[in-house]
Amino acid sequence: MYNFSYLKKSAIILVLFSLICLFAFKAEHTPYTEYYQSSLSRFSTEQEKLLLNIKDADLTTPAGIGAVKTGIKQARLKLKAIDFWLRYLEPVAYKKINGPLPVEWENEVFEKFEKPYKRLGAGLSLAELYLNNKGSDLQKDSLLQLIRISQNALNTYMADSITSQLNTPNHFFLCNRLYLLNLAAIYTTGFECTENGNIIPELKAMMLDVNKIYTAFNQSFPGEKLTDDYLELYTRAMSFVNGQPDDFEQFDHFTFLKDYVNPLFAINQRLIRQYNVISVSFNDYTLNNSCNSIFDKSLYTPQNAMGIYSLLEDTAMLSEIRAVGKLLFYDPLLSGNNSRTCVSCHKSKEYFTDTAMATSFNFDHVHYLPRNTPSLVNVVYNHLLMLDGRHTSLQNQAKDVMTNPAEMGGKKEDIMDKILSCKEYKTAFRKFLKYTPEEKEITFDHIASAITYYYKDFSGFYSPFDDAMNQNRPLSADARKGFNLFMSKAQCATCHYVPQFNGVPPPYIGSEFEVIGVPADISYSKLSEDSGRYKINTAYETMNAFRTGNLRNLEYTKPYMHNGVFTTLDQVIDFYDAGGGTGKKLSVPNQSLSTDSLKLTATEKKELLSFLHSLNEAVIFENPPGSLPVSSRKELNSRKVGGDY
């Protein structure tokens, strides 16, 4: 039976929300703003129905649980109709409406200015997850609370600070850009949809609803509307999606992205420039308006490789800085014993990693470092650096490595003295000093920034997969099938996001960490004892968590995982296929990776591997310098290019 006092209370809430929409809505009343208002109201109504559904359901029976799941499904369809706005206009509130995780430690770009903080998720995805995982322990109050939090968060979208943006067309093209990026990276992967059977039906409904948003927008802003070429291509994209099976494992992600989403992105970028669109959102912090492809390396810029030379635009001078940076990369003067260099661990022709060892030598040349050497190729596409995310800038990372007693064992003052004892270095840095007017003397930042400016160039190369997306070049059938597996059954894309296939999802303002249960040895005798992110941000969720790595050039950057435990990609795929550490019978209570077997066939593993190989980039490496600058201290002139070990 219905609880009539609850129904009365719910009705009052619904009326109040409608009144808010009617009287407090500050945007101009155009077809576009009215559609926004009515769409939010429809979602609110569906959430009210869901609350009543939960209240009335007997959660001890399959029928009761099924009825609530049906209610969640209907509410999700109404949510997807407004996802276009919600996810962009207020992303913090969005995670209370459809958060994928119960607890999330935020580490977006703002960690460069403040510590990570705990954020609790709520809403539809978590409600569905709760239903799926709790079994007989289901608590109705907990389920209701997840939806009530979502209801309260929805009120945020009626605030003046949000609705006032609807009076101009600027926000629309930025909302649309994020929508297109999410079409490429998350909407078809199950990233925040726990029922695989609903992924493609939700996509079909969402694309149709977004088309209605397009119509309302064009009616309200005829001078800055979506152009016919965009709308025609979007119509074809909807037809393509509607012709696809509802099974997301059978969905042709490759064709959808290559023939529809990426070209739509290019048109939207053109319109952003044509209409001089202005952003007021941190969503756009790293995105580049001049980029015309999701797979262009200029799409987003998380790291400033120029460091202290950021204001410099003289290409000739920048070339000189790069040349000095290359010398420093190979120079043992950066180490405490004048025998170790950057290239000791980041070997240039091994994709700036160390493929010979699970972990490289410690500075003492006896022991080994605790973690595998990550490649410097594409490192610029991470917001947080090192496997535990301890650094927010390339320059700080470089300085830390030089002065770390276990790595290069140098001291800042000693390194500076040795570098400036070389006339070639001293002359160059005095010249560079003119272009950093805030500095009165040569600093450690001048050295670190020259090094990072040198190796950033190796992040600008492309792979056959990129060429297929950007230039319509052919890609093997196995690689295409492998990509479709990557985006669906293999579940790789829920952590490794397009286009870099690292842990930076749209809108590319944060680096993600995962707990996957990496073993200490290949026999799976125990879990790796490295606590990872926990050392930087102590929390239950961060124990054994590591920054999600970049999958480009994997064929050439073995061994794999933070401890180098796996020596082949076949071993890595088998590990994920088994359900990570938990699937391998290790105790990983906070594992974020799905613990279920993926049930990949031998053929599917082969196809997945083919796709991963298609991410190998045509990196052009350089030979080491022939010699190093001469020092006024004779004992330093016997040092070797690249060091001794």
Task: Provide a descriptive summary of the structure in words.
48% of the residues are buried. The chain is mostly helical. The chain has helices at residues 4-24, 31-56, 62-89, 91-98, 124-134, 140-154, 160-163, 170-185, 196-220, 228-242, 253-274, 315-329, 394-403, 412-420, 423-433, 444-455, 464-471, 477-487, 569-578, 580-583, 602-613; strands at residues 103-106, 117-120, 513-514, 546-547. The longest helix is centred in the N-terminal third of the chain and has 28 residues, at 62-89. The protein has 21 helices and 4 strands. The strands form 2 sheets. It has a two-stranded antiparallel sheet.
Q: Could you outline the blueprint of secondary structure elements for this entry?
A:
Blueprint: H1 4-24, H2 31-56, H3 62-89, H4 91-98, E1 103-106, E2 117-120, H5 124-134, H6 140-154, H7 160-163, H8 170-185, H9 196-220, H10 228-242, H11 253-274, H12 315-329, H13 394-403, H14 412-420, H15 423-433, H16 444-455, H17 464-471, H18 477-487, E3 513-514, E4 546-547, H19 569-578, H20 580-583, H21 602-613
Helix pairs in contact: 1-2, 2-3, 2-6, 2-9, 3-4, 3-5, 3-8, 3-9, 4-6, 5-6, 8-11, 9-10, 10-11, 12-16, 13-16, 18-21
CA-atom Rg in angstroms: 27 Å
Which blocks of ≥5 consecutive residues have pLDDT under 50? 1-15, 18-24
Biggest sheet layout: 2 strands, antiparallel
Order of helices and strands: HHHHEEHHHHHHHHHHHHHHEEHHH
Content-based structural category: mainly alpha
Number of helices: 21
Strand content: under 5%
Find the count of extended strands (DSSP E, 2+ residues). Answer: 4
Mean pLDDT equals 93
Assembly type of the shown chains? single chain
Distance between the termini: 76 Å
